[in-house]
Amino acid sequence: MADARQTLRARTSSPVVPVGGGLVAFGVANFAFLALAARDLGPAGSAPVSVFWTVVNAFGIGLFMPLEQDLARRLAAARARGGTGRVGRAPLLYTLGALAVVALVLLLAGGMLGRVVLDGQSGLVWVVLAALAAQAVAYATRGLLAGEASFGRYGVQLAVDGALRTAGSAVLAATGNGTAVGYALVLVAAPVLASVLALLGRRPRGVTTAEPSAEGQSRVPFGALVSVSLLSQVLANAGPMLIAWLAEPGDEAMAGRFVAAVTVARIPLFAFAAVQAVVLPALAARAAAGDVAGFRATTRLAVLGTAGLGAVGALGVLAIGPFAQVLLYGQDFAVSRTLLFLIAASGAFFMLAQVMAIVLLSRGDDWAAAVGWGVGVLALGLGFLVPTGLAEQVALALCTGAAAAAVCHAVRVRTTLRRWEPAP
């Protein structure tokens, strides 16, 4: 009985549990946020909110996910070497520089962005900058917590962010005073407040804000990390954009059906995010400690787990994908089983490419990861060589690109592990 309790305690104390729980709450909250805005403002009135949400999330991940990754691996490696992590000025300087570039772009092209992208809602333009700044705060907080292995607080940050998004949008919808700007401001306040609450009462685990040592100052990784993040986002989100760009007049509904199919077929990617947040700092700590055997074992477990998750997801979509699509979105959104399976397969390949990239990032091989994603983006075009319908061609292109990135990353990982000898 005691052994059973210990086993249960070990499983439930896994960092994947709080992170996964937070991600579930956060994901559900985003669906609720968009649904409440749509019901309150109607199809036309909520369109700028949906576009705003898409822009902020896409650029937030592309620009500030590297902030989380760098902080997580830097602090985890420092703890493995002796328990003292130094953040330094580089993350702050990068964040300020990235926001300054965004501000310059908005200053020069904000009017066009408001007219063309945000449906004439010029008031949303500068809220984009505020929302991206809030995203920077959230990603920096998660990187700090992941690097300290404070995954309970990491999950709290995600869950509270989601709860605040739901509560804020529910209040606006209930009072009938909701506007596009009002809903957008919810996306500014929620990440900041959630980050503050997640950090309250925190006891830093040997982390300082002083300048890093000469070893830590030897390189500033954000150029490569941003390249990795942006290229991976292009490969992940190219499908709907290609459909919208290449669809013939009268086929505008195809883009909507394809987006709906992506949300159904790529559900495993949602679960993979929890694994991703945990694996990078774990591998970075083993790399810093020179634990070659532990690093290889963790890599093997992460790759096999990711492959299993992708296979289960693809087979599940093959079995019940069309039924789930119609159940969630209605008969007008029905697509073929083949299309759903191809999208699910592209998601499985993307997860494998992502986990291999994490292995490279944990070893500081940032540019190799960027090159792999670049190869994947270039390989997208090969999928269009198969003569079939547009949606299937785009899905094949996504499979080809993600598979190419996965192979490229895997070759580099294999070479790195074979050459890496344990420290004497």
TrEMBL record:
The chain crosses the membrane at residues 16-38, 50-71, 92-118, 124-142, 154-174, 180-201, 222-247, 267-289, 301-327, 339-360, 367-387, 393-411. The keyword Nucleus does not apply. It comes from the Bacteria. Keywords: Cell membrane, Membrane, Transmembrane, Transmembrane helix. Signal peptide: none annotated. It is a multi-pass membrane protein. One of its GO terms (cellular component) is plasma membrane. It is found in: Cell membrane. PANTHER family: O-ANTIGEN TRANSPORTER-RELATED, PST FAMILY PREDICTED COLANIC ACID TRANSPORTER. This is Polysaccharide biosynthesis protein. It comes from Cellulomonas fimi (strain ATCC 484 / DSM 20113 / JCM 1341 / CCUG 24087 / LMG 16345 / NBRC 15513 / NCIMB 8980 / NCTC 7547 / NRS-133). The lineage of its organism: Bacteria, Bacillati, Actinomycetota, Actinomycetes, Micrococcales.
